Amino acid sequence: PPPGADPRPCAWAAAETEVAVSITLTAPLFPPWEPPPKTANTLEELVPRRSLEKIVEPKQASDDFRGEVRRAAQSLAADYVGMFGEELAAAEGPYTEEKVMAARQRKLIFELNRTGKYLELKDTLRAVIVRVVQEKYKKSGDMGYDEMRDLYNDLYVYLVDEMHRALNDLIKGPKRSLEPVVPDAMRLAQLQSLADEYEVNQDFKRASRCHTERLLASTDPQVWYSYGSYLSRSGDVGKAVEAFKEVVAIEPDNLDGLLCLASLLWEEGATQDVQFLEQADSIVRAVMAASENNGVAWALLALVYAEKVGYAEEHLREEAATAARNARFKAMQLCQGAQAQGLTGLPANYFLQLALVLLDLKLGKCAAKALSEAGTVPWAESVKVDMALCSSRAASLQDEPDLAIRHIKDAMRHGARGDAR
Q: Above 90 in pLDDT, residue 287?
């Protein structure tokens, strides 16, 4: 149209036509998606299940031996008093001459042999000792000379200790076995509250004492979970790993315990040895076996695989990168899936959820890596404030105060008015 004239109407615009363009490649950019490769170890091999049944060592034969020793001592004492009672009553002092004592001993031994009591005592004790050997040492008479010699040495020491114990019980009375009192639910809650308060005040000595008392309830997985979290926050990752292994040993399907254990192994693998990453892989796969579409587990697996790429040899690096890419694709797919929809109608961000777990364990470097992936999830803008706050915490854990302050300022800029976080 001439200058200044209205433009002619466009038929395409009037019909609200859309132009679609598709591109077909002759070959895929990446190999087709495949499930993760098989792990080297299973969960049962890494963390054997712990039996909660109390194993009581059979002590019937040992108890009978101590009983026979007490009866023999009482019988000999009665015979001694019967033979020398009048002399003992007429004694002027508490001490008796050595020659007199030796004469009484010879006379007592003669009387025991004459009446057959010595043989009777010996046969009775011999029968009980045979049972002790069978019960405690799992042995019979069919042994070689060297084996029998070693057994006799151990047996002699053991029987002498048991004899002294029996005689002490006869004189002073049996000692009560003092077993530790397991705290009840209320006491466990009180100790946890105190431990948290001491930890906030950086009184780690008293906090450790509270957790140690809670460990008297050694069959409670939640006690070990709290202790492992405390150890990780205290910087003792090695002991924290062992604590979370106790959680898994008691309750192999404890998903939170499995995820924390895998996270700690990832932290150790990132700084020490690739073997820890292999173990983390096996632990995460145990989570997936129980919950196939666990988004946090897939996010963690993607990051563990990405860490393994740096350890892979040159000819295996592409294979490792493919495994990491496939795991990341699955995590992103779950983030956008219908099962991830929340009350807001927005998909979940499993990398951000993983970062929250890592921050609670004070694993700053791992949390920063998870947050980096969380920023690539679609609709990450909807959780921009949460991302900034978590990033600030991760930077603080890595001793980067300037970066932490910058993230705090980002959170303040994007946060709603009145948001007190």
A: yes
Domains held by the chain: number: 2
pLDDT per residue over 311-359, tens digit each?
Answer: 888 888 999 999 999 999 999 999 887 555 544 455 688 999 999 999 9
pLDDT tens track for 404-417? 999 999 888 877 66
The pair of three-digit structure tokens given for residue 22, joined into one six-digit string: 């598709």
Sign of the CA dihedral running 162, 167, 172, 174: positive
Please, is 228 exposed, middle or buried when counting C-beta atoms within 10 Å of its C-beta (0-12, 13-18, 19+)?
A: buried
- 3-class secondary structure, 421: coil
On whether residue 140 sits in a domain, the answer given is yes
Shared domain for 163 and 193, answered yes or no, is no
- With beta carbons less than 8 A apart as the criterion, state whether 373 and 328 touch: yes
Cα distance between residue 265 and residue 260, in whole Å: 9
Q: How far apart are CA 78 and CA 72, in angstroms?
A: 10
Distance, in Å, from the CA atom of 419 to the CA atom of 421, rounded to the nearest integer, reads 6
Report DSSP state, residue 141: S
Whole-angstrom Cα distance, residue 172 to residue 189?
40
Cα separation, 407 vs 81, whole angstroms: 91
Q: Which of 122, 149, 172 is the last residue of a domain?
A: 172
> Is residue 250 predicted with pLDDT exceeding 80?
yes
Tell me the residue range of the domain where 121 lies: 60-172
Rg for the chain (alpha carbons), in Å? 37
> Average pLDDT, whole number, for the chain?
86
CA count, 13 A, side-chain hemisphere, 290: 15
The DSSP element (H or E) to which 149 belongs, if any, is helix 145-172
DSSP state of 344: T
| 156 and 117 within one domain | yes
Joined together, the tokens standing for residue 99 give 């020659």
Same domain, 68 and 149: yes
Task: Describe the crossing of helices 117-136 and 98-115 by its angle, rounded to 10 degrees.
Answer: 80
DSSP string, 86-116: HHHHH-SSS---HHHHHHHHHHHHHHHHHHT
- Is the domain of 81 the same as that of 167? yes
Higher per-residue pLDDT: 331 or 52: 331
Residue finishing a domain among 231, 246, 261: 246
Is 0.70 surpassed by the pTM of this model? no
410: tokens are 């980002």
Residues 6 or more apart whose CB falls under 8 angstroms from that of 407 comprise 388, 389, 391, 392, 395
Shared-domain flag, residues 154 and 208: no
Query: d(Cα 280, Cα 286) in Å, to the nearest integer?
Result: 10
